[in-house]
Recover the amino acids of this structure.
């Protein structure tokens, strides 16, 4: 591909029995990729990342870091379960590099389907809920009174309760959730300093605990991982250049649409500067 093409077409045939197909409840596409892709299941597009527009033989993607590329990113495509059929199926991927002269390229994909017996009451079922429903919705990364007033807000954005026990921050800050269940729509915050946070925002917001480390004033990568797997629920990087009012001006960095695709957390337009409302939807 070097100096010839930035696109690569991958076809992965697989077989599903009629018995296995019956009663499937979820479908997750996991991809390691550098730099972008468009994925199709039996001829229908089901997911794309770091590419917009109409794919062509010479399409290129936006640049993705090597550190992100090597960790499988999960995409919940359960809404496309109906595309599967008994017999031979085809997962096709239009994988893209950022340019023809890029020194590296990666695309490795798996499809994981879960049925009711495997999912009911299991840790795997909860992992899928976490991937689908746990989102970081507000960041106070440079509070006017100092870093001890910083916090991160998370919300359950699906209509089922999710157990966040063991969920952990791997980049940006260091924190592991102890036993905690979030009800539909419920928010929780992790804080730099609990005393400082309470003095500013009172006793009402639900606080999971204090994190170690600091949120960078200029922006940094945030990674939220599943309890027992090196799989990211969210992986994004914010910047103080996005909205100056959040850079010591008293505003928090707040997500526009908590139900949007996780990949959009990297985009400035997915956020806005707002009055701090930690612990409230």
């Amino acid at each position: 591909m070097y100096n010839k093409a930035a696109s690569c077409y991958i076809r992965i045939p697989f077989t599903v029995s009629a018995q296995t197909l019956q009663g499937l409840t979820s479908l997750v596409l996991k991809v390691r990729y550098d730099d972008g892709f468009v994925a199709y299941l039996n001829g229908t597009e089901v997911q794309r990342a770091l590419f917009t527009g109409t794919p062509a033989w010479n399409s290129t993607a936006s640049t993705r870091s090597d550190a992100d590329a090597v960790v499988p990113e999960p995409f919940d495509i359960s809404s496309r379960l109906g595309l599967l059929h008994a017999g031979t199926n085809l997962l096709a991927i239009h994988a893209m590099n950022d340019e023809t002269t890029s020194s590296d390229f990666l695309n490795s994909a798996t499809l994981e389907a879960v049925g009711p017996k495997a999912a009911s009451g299991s840790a795997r079922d909860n992992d899928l809920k976490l991937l689908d429903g746990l989102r970081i919705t507000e960041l106070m990364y440079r509070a006017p009174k100092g870093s001890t007033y910083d916090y991160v807000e998370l919300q359950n954005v699906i209509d089922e309760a999710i157990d966040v026990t063991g969920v952990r921050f791997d980049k940006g800050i260091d924190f592991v959730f102890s036993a905690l269940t979030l009800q539909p729509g419920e928010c929780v915050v992790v804080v730099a300093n609990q005393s400082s946070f309470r003095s500013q925002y009172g006793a009402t917001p639900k606080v999971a605990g204090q994190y170690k480390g600091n949120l960078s004033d200029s922006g940094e990568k945030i990674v939220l991982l599943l309890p027992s797997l090196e799989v990211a629920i969210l992986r994004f990087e914010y910047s103080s250049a996005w909205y100056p009012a959040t850079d010591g001006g008293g505003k928090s960095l707040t997500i526009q649409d908590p139900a949007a695709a996780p990949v959009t957390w990297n985009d400035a337009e997915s956020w806005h500067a707002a009055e701090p409302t930690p612990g409230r939807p």
